[in-house]
């Protein structure tokens, strides 16, 4: 069964969420996991793309943004995508058949979350995003997933 971890931030702001996502990505890649980051929109995808180049001195993490048509060998350990409406659909083709870790930055639970061994949900202190995080928490809880929370 998929492991679900909620990372609860004391601050708000897109950068705080994205920086925690970068830290989770970095740890997962160090453990040789493949990561799919499900963003809410193109803006988050672009900011995360930029941060993965610069968030930590001397630490570029190889990644690709789905749908950009950039050449790649399909071996990038990190794929950034934009979730579909209400989290429906499948992950982008660039994610391949690698189902290690998904980081969800979208407001809804993606329909394909259970393919992954682990899902990381990042919730900051913004009231609207906190409310959406509570809804996602209830969604997983009602379906019997064991939930872990980490206060940051």
Task: Provide a concise account of the structure shown.
The protein is an alpha/beta fold. It has three helices and seven strands.
Order of helices and strands: EHEHEEEEHE
Helix percentage = 25-40%
Q: Report the portion of residues in β strands.
A: 15-25%
Low-confidence stretches: none
Overall pLDDT confidence: 87
**Count of runs of 4 or more consecutive helical residues:** 3
Main sheet summary: 7 strands, parallel
Helix/sheet category: alpha/beta
CATH topology: Rossmann fold
Radius of gyration: 14 Å
* Beginning-to-end CA distance, first to last residue: 25 Å
* CATH architecture classification name: 3-Layer(aba) Sandwich
Total separate domains: 1
Number of strands: 7
CATH class: Alpha Beta
The named CATH superfamily: DNA polymerase III subunit chi
> Which strands sit side by side, in order, in the main sheet?
3-4-2-5-6-1-7
Write down the overall geometry: globular
């Amino acid at each position: 069964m998929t492991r679900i971890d909620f990372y609860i931030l004391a601050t708000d702001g897109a950068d705080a969420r994205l920086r925690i996502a970068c830290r989770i990505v970095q740890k997962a890649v160090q453990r040789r996991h493949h990561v799919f980051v499900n963003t809410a929109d193109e803006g988050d995808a672009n900011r995360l793309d930029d941060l993965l180049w610069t968030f930590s001195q001397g630490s570029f993490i190889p990644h690709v943004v789905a749908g950009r048509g950039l050449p790649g060998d399909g071996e990038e350990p990190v794929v950034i995508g934009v979730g579909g409406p209400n989290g429906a659909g499948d992950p982008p083709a660039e994610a391949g058949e690698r189902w290690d870790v998904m980081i969800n930055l979208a407001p809804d639970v993606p329909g394909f979350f259970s393919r992954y061994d682990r899902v990381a949900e990042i919730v900051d202190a913004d009231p609207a995003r906190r409310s959406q995080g509570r809804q996602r928490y209830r969604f997983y809880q009602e379906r019997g997933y064991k939930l872990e929370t980490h206060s940051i």
